[in-house]
Amino acid sequence: MWDKIPIFVNVSLSVFGYFLTLSIIPKFRDSFLRAGIFGRDQCKKTDKKIPEAVGVLSACVFLVITFLFIPVPFGHYFFGSAAEFPYHEKVDAHLFIFVFVFSFQFVEYLAALLSICCMVLLGFADDVLNLKWRHKLLLPSLATLPLLCVYYVNFNSTTVIIPHPLRFSFGYSLDLGILYYFYMAVIVVFCTNAINILAGVNALEVGQSLVISMSIIIFNLIELSRDARQHFFSLYFMIPFFFTSLALFKLNW
Question: What is the protein's membrane topology class (predicted)?
Fold first, then answer.
């Protein structure tokens, strides 16, 4: 029951976010033009000014949706018998393991939102200030700190599973130690710049984001029969991201 309600609410909020994004972006068009944040569509013959950095508006809608969604997946622990959530040490013994797990997810959720806020700020600063490449390497790494710190405190597992073709050399798993955190930071830098490098072609950036998010959503839905809790957690972010990006894609085409 509690698994179905959050997804239903999440989808409903995401659909609302889609129409809200479609509504607010045109209303802020003149504000961006007055601020000088615009370009010209070189794919068309018209010389019409096109506002840039409007992705910050869809990102703000995404953040509002995910903030409003916070009480829903954890509502049972806010309003139910586990009234002391997230202070799991005060909970009765028979609820300990459930509240223990959900308290960690609650912290992870907030840490993810903090990292996303940092990334949104970076993206907007790049459009306004035209950051140099070295800044684009440093700032995403700093934005990963909330996630990496929470992961270190909660799990601190630095072991990775080796792909089948390499297991004869490295075995089934390999402990990377501190290199694991460096690897995760580098992955974030790569992902942000892999999207950002496509800027300038109509809807290509956000279109790639749509393809990636839809792929993750499909994978999560397929794998729900296994570790449903983790895949639901992923869907809580991916569904709003898909719908708000879809609105931006429609306006950016």
Answer: Multi-pass membrane protein
The secondary structure of 212-229 as a DSSP string is HHHHHHHHHHHGGGSSHH
pLDDT band, residue 79 (cuts 50/70/90): low
Question: Residue 157, exposed/middle/buried by CB under 10 A (0-12, 13-18, 19+)?
Answer: exposed
197-249 pLDDT, tens digit each: 777 667 788 889 999 999 999 999 998 877 777 888 889 999 999 999 999 99
Domain ranges of the chain: 4-252
Q: List beta partners, residue 174.
A: 160
40 three-state secondary structure: strand
Structural element, H or E, at residue 38:
strand 38-40
Compute CA distances 205 → 2, 108, 150, 192, 224, whole Å: 35, 27, 29, 11, 29
Which pLDDT does position 200 carry in this prediction? 67
Q: Sign (positive/negative) of CA torsion 111, 198, 49, 135? A: positive
Residue found by looking up tokens 């490449």 in the block: 133
Tell me which residue has tokens 């089934």. 172
- Helix ranges restricted to H, 94-227: 96-129, 133-143, 145-154, 167-170, 179-196, 204-222
pLDDT at 78: 56
